[in-house]
């Protein structure tokens, strides 16, 4: 019968996981800043800014915000990726509308509506049925 790992091993494992999370966040932030800079340079060189360019910059901004929230709170609110998906769908529709059939445009609009409803449901669930995270449960017991 094997023994459970001691508190030192558990603490070291949690520290390693935390380092990996922070390294991943730094990579995501650097990649997002580089992508945003490339988009700004492309707009500058074309001397033109379109709605799709602005929506892409909003997506980058949401990714930076999502990373900041994750860094500060230690968990990712489900709503943030839903917001990013909504903006990405709107950008895709704006960019490719001429190639879509009316049924495809309607399906994408319904998808954005469903994402919006999902945001409302998640928000309602968080307000109506608050929960404690794992760290709080460990501290309370």
Please describe what this structure looks like.
The protein is about 80% helix and about 0% strand. The protein is mainly alpha-helical and about 140 residues long. The chain has one domain (about 5-130). Helix 1 (about 5-45) packs antiparallel against helix 2 (about 50-75), helix 2 (about 50-75) packs antiparallel against helix 3 and helix 3 (about 80-95) packs antiparallel against helix 4 (about 100-130). It is flat. The chain starts with 6 loop residues before the first helix and ends with a helix.
Summarize the entry for a quick read.
This protein is mainly alpha-helical and 141 residues long.
Question: How is the main sheet built?
Answer: none
Backbone structural class: mainly alpha
| SSE series | HHHHH
Ranges with pLDDT <50 over ≥5 residues?
none
Percent helix: over 70%
Q: How would you sum up the global shape?
A: flat
**Count of discrete structural domains:** 1
Q: Say how many strands there are.
A: 0
Mean pLDDT: 86
What gyration radius follows from the Cα positions, in whole Å?
21 Å
First CA to last CA: what distance? 27 Å
Number of helices: 5
Strand content: under 5%
């Amino acid at each position: 019968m094997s023994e459970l790992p001691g508190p030192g091993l558990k603490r070291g494992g949690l520290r390693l996981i935390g380092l990996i999370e922070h390294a991943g966040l730094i990579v995501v932030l650097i990649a997002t800043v580089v992508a945003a800079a490339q988009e700004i340079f492309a707009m500058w060189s074309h001397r033109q800014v379109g709605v799709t360019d602005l929506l892409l910059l909003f997506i980058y901004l949401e990714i930076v915000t999502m990373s900041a929230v994750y860094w500060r709170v230690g968990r990712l609110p489900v709503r943030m990726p839903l917001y990013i998906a909504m903006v990405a769908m709107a950008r895709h529709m704006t960019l490719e509308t001429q190639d879509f059939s009316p049924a495809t445009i309607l399906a994408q609009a319904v998808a954005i509506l469903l994402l919006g409803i999902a945001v409302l449901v998640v928000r309602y669930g968080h307000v109506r049925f608050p929960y404690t995270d794992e760290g709080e449960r460990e501290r309370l017991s």
